[in-house]
Amino acid sequence: MATFLQPILSRRQLLSRIGMGLGGIALNELLAGDRPVQAGIGGALPSTHHAPKAKRVIYLFQSGGPSQLETFDYKPLLNERHGQQLPDSVRQGQRLTGMSGNQASLPLAGSVFKFAQHGRSGAWISELLPHTAKVADEIAIIRSMETDAINHDPAITFLQTGNQVSGRPSIGAWLNYGLGTDNENLPAFVVLITKGKGDQPLYSRLWGTGFLPSRYQGVQFRSGKDPVLYLNNPPGVDRESRRNMLDRLRELHELEQEATGDAELNTRIAQYEMAFRMQSSVPEVTDTSKEPQHIFDLYGEDAKKPGTFAANCLLARRLAERGVKFIQLYHQGWDQHGGLPNGIRTQCRETDQPAAALLTDLKKRGMLDDTLVIWGGEFGRTNYSQGKLTATDYGRDHHPRCFSMWMAGGGIEGGSVYGETCPFGYNIVKDGVRVRDFHATILHLLGIDHERLSYKFQGLDARLTGVEESHVLNDILT
Fold it and tell me: pLDDT at position 362, please?
C-alpha cells in the first residue's frame, strides 16, 4: 500500500489553517513587547525604541589584542619596578594561559614608549599614536574593559556575537535584522579585512547570522577586481540574460515556497536580487580613483593600495555615505607574545593615521555626529613579560581582566576617559565595563533598547546581550 507524505507545513500555513493566520504570527513573534516582525528593507523594528544618536557604525576591530600598556593606559610604576616579580596580591590567583603560566618567573615589564597628555581630558596617549592624539577631543577612551575569555577564538567571538560559543548572530546581523538598510542597492552589513596580515585566523561566522535568517549576514568586500565573489556575470552572459534567468528562478522559488513554506526561499530570492543590483553599486562605491589627492594625503600613503587598513578606512567612509548601516573592519597582527616593541610599532604605523583620518573626514562631511566609530581588540596584554625580558625587548601574554578601547561620534562625549585600572595595570579599580555593557551601549546609541531586541530561538527570546544584567555607559554619552 502506497504511502504519500504531505509536505511539512510552515508555521504560516499551519496557523492559517487553524484560524490564527498572520495575527498569530505577530503575537508569537512580538519584538520589544509591541513590535511585530516585518519583512523588507525596513527591518523588524518599524521604529526605534527611542531617538537614536547614531545612524550607522564603523567598527575598527584590532584582532589579536592590542597592548593597553603601550597605547592608552599609562603605568609609570611598571617602569619603576621593571624586572621585579608580579606580586601575588596583584595577581590574586588569576588563571594564566599555557604560554606563560609555566614560566619560572613573571617579571614586570615597563613600556619602552613615552606617553603624554592630550585633549580636554588630559588623556595619556602613547607616542605610538600621534595622529590619534590629535583627535583626542573626539574620542572617549575606555580603560576598564574586561572579558571572560583568555584565548583568541572565544574572546573575538564574544566581542562580535555576545557569546563565547560560536553559532550566535553577530552585532551587524542583529542591527541588520532590527533596523534594516538605508540603501537597497548595497548590503546593510559590510566586512573589510586588511589584506596580507597573518596572525590569528578570522572566520566568516564572526559576521554570520547564527539563528537569524541568513539574509542578515555580513558581506565581505575584497580588494582586487572582484570585490564580492561571484557577483559579476560569467563570460558570455550579459546583463539582460542574467535578468531573464533571475526572473525564471524567482518563479521556481515562489512555486517551491508556496508548496513548502520554507522562509529561506524568500531569503534566497532577495539575495539574488541584491546581487543583481550590486553589479552596479559595488564597482561604484569601491572605486576610489576619483577621490582628491588631499583625501589620500589625509589617510596616508597606503590609502591608494587596495586591501590595506588605510584603503579600507577610506572605503568605510564611502560605504557610510551610501547608507550602509554596519561596517566592520578587521586588522590582524596585534598578538605580540614576543618582540612586542617592534611589532606594535608596525601595527600602529599601519592603523594610527587612517583611524584618525576617518574621524577627521567624517567630521568635515558632517557625518561624525551620527556615525559611531569604535576601535579595540578582544582583550589586553599582561603587565609582566612573556619570555625573556630585557631593557628594550619583551612580550606580553593575553590579559582579559582589563584592556582599552575607544569610541567616537554618534552620541559619544569626545575628550573623555572612562574607567581606571590599578597602578600595576592588572586589575580594574573603577567603572568596569563588561562586554555586554559595551553591546548595550552600541544598541542604545542606535535607538534600540537591548532588552527589547530579541528573536525567538529554541523557545527563548534570544538577545545580543543575553540574560545577564547589562548597563548602558551613560557617562560617556552626550
Answer: 98
